[in-house]
Amino acid sequence: MARVQIPVDLRNPGQVFACLGFMEAAEVLCGPCEGAFAYDAGKTDTFFEIAVTGEENPVEATLRFLGSASVEAIAPSNSDASMSAERWNVATRRLASPSYPFACPDSPATLAVALIDNRGTRISIEHWGDSSQAGRDNMKFWAGAGGYPGAALARDALALLQNAGPKPLTSAANDPFSVQLPQSSSFRFDWRRDYVPLDVGFSPNEHGNVVMMGFPLVEILAAIGLQHARPERPDRRDKLTYRYGVSNAMLPTSFVRAVLGCQSMNFPMRTFRMRLGWPGQEGQARCIIDTREEAVT
Questions:
Q1: Where do the structural domains in the chain lie, given as residue ranges?
Q2: How confident is the model at residue 111 (pLDDT cuts 50, 70, 90)?
Q3: What's the alpha-carbon Rg for the chain, to the nearest Å?
């Protein structure tokens, strides 16, 4: 059995989602796995422990996968030619069958995505196509100009990781969430690069000498982590408040998903409330501006 630990900040929702992203990827690449947040009471800077039944290090296996992966947008079989991410230079495959993971999207912005490595292994990202009518919040925080799609954001994040020198993925296994690179746009899961201009007093976009540093590895892993789990949105009318949970019990992936959504199953659990804001026009992009612990159970 391979068992590894990586540092995680429990008050950074993107890092918590990314821990589940490592588990989701490990389920595909290494087989069944378990995970736990090895926290001490009251501390939020801690470690995430992940174990798989095989001998392959699940963190290293995931980083190798991302190192050779490409992005493919998936279009519904009955959609027209405009339902494609190819105008953003992302390959688009149209399904042969009528089945699709969610209702046919209104635009290419929320097309389902597959990450595919050089061996043909596939890991899906589909959460942003869910609808509240189906009972699952889509956790879509970005609102790119010109309908910039999730497929292109995923492609951009992978390109940063694969093309930066020295290669960040080759040395990231011990502390993957610290990988930092210049990043102009993201899924807005890691709040270390986000801001609300009215709160900070200026907009970096208006200053050419300001380079925004992002965390593309956290972003792509967080997107993978939301494939089968969601934080809780306590009030369906409130788009700016979410809750998520973590446990220090060693749990299989299916249970870690449930705990993330604050489902109590008699395991030790800590819950956090994250507050979002509108960095631009209300009703468009959202960003995480604060996270606070609620309780220790």
A1: 2-296
A2: very high
A3: 18
Structure tokens at 136: 């699952």
Cα 268 from Cα 191, distance rounded (Å): 26
Tokens for 215, please give them.
Answer: 């965390």
Residues with Cβ within 8 Å of 40's Cβ and at least 6 positions away in sequence, in order, are 46
Q: In whole angstroms, what is the distance from residue 199 CA to residue 179 CA? A: 26
Name which of 24-38, 158-172, 212-226 the model is least confident about: 158-172
**CA of 282: how far to CAs of 138, 143, 257, in Å?**
18, 11, 30
16 within 8 A of 177, measured Cβ to Cβ: no
The angle formed by the CA atoms of residues 222, 258 and 157, to the nearest 5 degrees, is: 5
Average pLDDT of span 179-198: 82
Q: Listing from the earlier edge strand, what are the strands of the sheet with 122-125?
A: 92-94, 70-75, 112-116, 122-125
Using CA atoms, how far apart are residues 1 and 3, in angstroms rounded to an integer? 6
Angle at 180 between CA 287 and CA 244, to 5 degrees: 40
pLDDT surpassing 80 at residue 223: yes
pLDDT single digits (tens) 268-291 = 999 999 999 998 888 888 999 999
Q: What is the dihedral of CA 188, 191, 193, 197, to 10 degrees?
A: 90
If we measure between CA atoms, which residue out of 203, 199, 125 comes closest to residue 157? 125
Place of tokens 């589940």: 20
Cβ-based burial of 178 (10 A; exposed 0-12, middle 13-18, buried ≥19): middle
Q: Tell me: the pLDDT tens digits for 189-217?
A: 999 887 554 454 445 555 455 556 899 99
Provide mean pLDDT across the span 21-49. 95
Q: Which residues of 111-138 are buried (b: 16+ CB within 10 A; e: fewer)?
A: bbbbbbbeeeeebbbbbbbbeeeeebbb
